[in-house]
Amino acid sequence: MTTTVPVTITINGEPRDLAVAPHRTLLDVLRNEAGLTGTKKGCDVGDCGACTVLLDDVPVNSCLVLAVEAAGRNVTTIEGIAPAPDRLHLLQENFMALGASQCGFCTPGIIVMAKALLDQNPDPTEEEIRFGLAGNICRCTGYTKIIEAIQVTARQMAAAGGETA
Amino acid sequence: MTSVIGKSVKRTDTLGKVTGGAVYAGDVVLPGLLHGKTKRSTVAHARIKAIDTTKALALPGVKAILTHGDVPRVLHYGSPHPRSASVTQDQYILDTKVRYFGEGVAAVAATSEEIAELACELIEVEYEPLPAVFTVEDALKPGAPAIHDVGPGGNLVLDPFVVTRGDVEKGFAEADLIVEGEYGMGRPTPAYMEPNVCVCQWDPLGKLTIWTSTQSPFMVRGTLAEVLGLPLNKVRVLVDHMGGGFGAKQDLFQHEFLCALLAQRTRRPVRMEFTRKETFLGGRTRHPGTVWIRQGFKRDGTITAREAKVVFNSGAYGSHGPGVTAVGTAALTSLYRCENVRLEGRCVYTNTPIAGAFRGYGVVQTYYALDILMDEAAETLGMDPAALKLKNAVREGDVAPSNHPLTGHGLEDCIRRGMDETGWASRSSKPKAGRLRRGWGMGCEMHGSSAYPGIKEQGNAVVRMNEDGSVTLLTGTTGLGTGAHTALAQITAEELGVTFEDVAVVHGDTDVVPWDIGAFASHTTFMAGRACQMAAAQVKAKVLARAADRLEVSAADLEIRDSVITVKGVPGMSLTVREAIAAEKGIPAPQLLGEGSYHPTKSYSFGAHFVEVEVDTETGQVSVLQVVPVHEIGKVIHPIAAAGQIEGGIQQGIGHTLSEDFVVDHRDGRPLNASFVDYKMPLAMDMPPIRTIILETAPSDGGPFGAKGVGEDPIIAIGPAIANAIHDAIGVRFRHYPITPEQILAALEEKAGAQAA
Ligand code: FES
Ligand code: FES
């Protein structure tokens, strides 16, 4: 019943031609139209950060962005974080190894947010990490191991000369 | 020496979580999928006079609407542990009455979520309002409106639950000092990150498949089958990953029935997904309530008698009310030794959101009261609170709440270790003046692994060794996010003598895996783990028998480690597991199957939390500066996962104590803060550093390799520890949670006034 608008959104490096209703959120289009269900919906109103993606490298709550606003732009989701199909991003490695993901529902949003954080500030203090994650709710971990995984990643990246994976 | 357990192997379930590939129920896409929505009541107590769906049905895209006349009318258990004493049978899929604001009254399936929502708005419900009660006091008044026809009457969910031990009168007569207090609890909710969601599909033969975010898939299967009149082999429940549950996702929710029926009616798959607001309205909360306790003490701190009255608010339905009341009340027999005990627990219906199972299951409330009262007593006795608790800590041989004798000295070990770690004896006692005032507090807890004796549980496992020596573990336990499946694989590998990587876990399909009661009661590793160990032992015996044949030695002389079979005392004589079982000369490899069924009794884990807080006397804000949790949980299977449980429990416990309260307007029963903005939880900026210490000093004979549970323990002791620390900081005793900044400011003002006067 609603009319759709054709848009091209580059998702994880791949231009995607999609027909979207003007009122649909980027989150819904990613999950339902683009088939990328890694990005989660925890609230749909901008309160939890589970839906965090990068829009032209800037982290946004994809539930607060209309899909049409993303036309012609670059979107990076959790599925596009790994540097190669057979290799994980260091953040992903460390989230696994250090127990930073429990139920995992917050994890995609937090990893995407952490990537943006480290890209901007490769050597963050604990306070800066906590501030950076202020909009991401995790109900399982107490954040202890999430902070640790991000700190360890920052150190490893520094040791590897800024390489992220 | 163990080779696989006790190590933090890489959790296999988290690969999908860090890459986005893990499939949660809401991620399931099926051709022709319709979207379902629940129409929810806007009154707290009413009879439904009429429902008009004409306008909604006329909306293009609407495929079906169900109201109470369209669904089977079967009185069913709110939580699917049918026929256990823990739960009530007081719900219909859709009733002719509503009992709380937000209860489902109709359901719509449409081609999009927006259309389904719009259709819900177009459904017209005519209510005949009934008098409503929102507090326990009002619900218990003579002549109060009866919310249910079932149950003992008088709005009681169950007959009062009474525990007596020894002679309470004699105990109080022997006391030098009697301390008493009444403690009040707000209404925290689990607020798991994944809103409730399910997808239902029927096949042409009339079989229902449901993907649902549940902790207890076999219970969902059983109750759906019973209510829909299907044999168990016509209901298949699938759950791979789930985004948290914390106990609440043990209940069977209205939308799970409605989704199945909408899919049946439309002959198309249907998804029903809660919004965050619905997750508050239609979810389950912890039981609010009051706990009154009176304790007698000798001058040396010995407890002579304990009397308590526990009253829980169940909300509109019973759910886990009986279990929570029994477990929470019975917990007061223990923690601190006392021979003369009289306890009474009650649970009361009100027209408020449903309280259900939530991590800590009644014990959070009762130990909050008991532990603060111990601090109050210490103050009066002139004793150090930790010393008083240590003196009275339960120990080896004492009778547990379950009536089993306790094993070991776990609680004493936790208290002593925490005192050492924090330098408790020499902690700062400098005057608490100035704007920012700091204080230390500690609290204790114990909690049972398994729900026995409330439920006679059973853990099952099937272990199969494939012809290449790899192992498949089939388990009915759910992947709640705790890492339990990794722990089960570790236990299986350890027992069998293979590597962790050799074991693959199959779970999440009730058509395939052995029956399981569900992931709750801190029992998965404890109970299913033991079943895995039993099943693995059977497979191991078969492998060794085969190897013994090949090596021409006795099986008793063989051992397996890292998938290599060696002869004890004969270096060089060895065989890989794969070689031992391989096919040869056209004869297939043997069928190597083991099956474990374990009926646990009970073990208890222990904990003591030490907390430092800072109170801002100008804003009333309490910051938790550091937490040192010490837990005794028997043999640790996966240290990082165990620590993760502890840290997450502390986060929720801090929330309970300082901010979380799902509030209902006492005029009309309307929830006032059904969103993440208004329901305040501790997040990244609020969480303190946590220095977790895990002890293994009192292993359980009942658990695999001595392991006990840890899932619920960490949410219990943090609350009283914070309340006691606030008292240490500002000298004000709070007997409730959450303790809000406004209350801190008011109390400080009152105190200043009293001092000036
Ligand atoms: S789903 Fe977007 S912020 Fe919660
Ligand atoms: S891991 Fe469950 S919400 Fe973060």
From TrEMBL, chain A:
Highest taxon listed in the record's lineage: Bacteria
GO molecular function, one term: metal ion binding
Protein name as it appears in the record: (2Fe-2S)-binding protein
Stored InterPro entries: 2Fe-2S-bd, 2Fe-2S-bd_dom_sf, 2Fe-2S_ferredoxin-like_sf, 2Fe-2S_ferredoxin-type, 2Fe2S_fd_BS, Beta-grasp_dom_sf, Diverse_Oxidoreductases
Swiss-Prot/TrEMBL keywords: 2Fe-2S, Iron, Iron-sulfur, Metal-binding, Oxidoreductase
Every 2Fe-2S ferredoxin-type domain range: 5-81
CDD domains xrefs: fer2
Automatic annotation (TrEMBL), chain B:
GO molecular function: iron ion binding; oxidoreductase activity
Domain Aldehyde oxidase/xanthine dehydrogenase a/b hammerhead stretches: 19-131
Transmembrane segments: none
Pfam families assigned: Ald_Xan_dh_C, MoCoBD_1, MoCoBD_2
Domain of life (superkingdom): Bacteria
Cofactor entry: Mo-molybdopterin cytosine dinucleotide
UniProt-listed SUPFAM superfamilies: CO dehydrogenase molybdoprotein N-domain-like, Molybdenum cofactor-binding domain
Record-linked InterPro entries: Ald_Oxase/Xan_DH_a/b, Ald_Oxase/Xan_DH_a/b_sf, Ald_Oxase/xanthine_DH-like, AldOxase/xan_DH_MoCoBD1, AldOxase/xan_DH_MoCoBD2, AldOxase/xan_DH_Mopterin-bd_sf
Protein name per its UniProtKB record: Dehydrogenase
Species: Rhodoplanes roseus
